[in-house]
Amino acid sequence: MTAQVTRDAVLAAPKVLLHDHLDGGLRVATILELSDEIGWTPRLPTTDPVALQAWFTRGAESRDLLQYLATFEHTIAVMQTQAGIERVAYECVVDLAADGVVYAETRLAPEQHEQQGLGFDAVIEALAAGLRRGERDAAAAGRPIEVNAIVCAMRTEERSLEVVHDVDRIRATEPKVVAFDLAGAETGWPPSLHAEALAFARARHLNITIHASEPPDLELISDALSHGAHRIGHGVRLDRDTSRDPATGELVLGPLARYVLDHQVHLEMAPTCNTQIGAVPSVADHPIGPFLRAGFNVGVNTDNRLMSHVLPSSELWAVAEAFGLDWHEIGRLVRNAAESSFAPHEVRRRLIEQVIDPAYAALAS
Question: Which GO terms describe its biological process (predicted)?
Answer without folding.
Answer: adenosine catabolic process; hypoxanthine salvage; inosine biosynthetic process
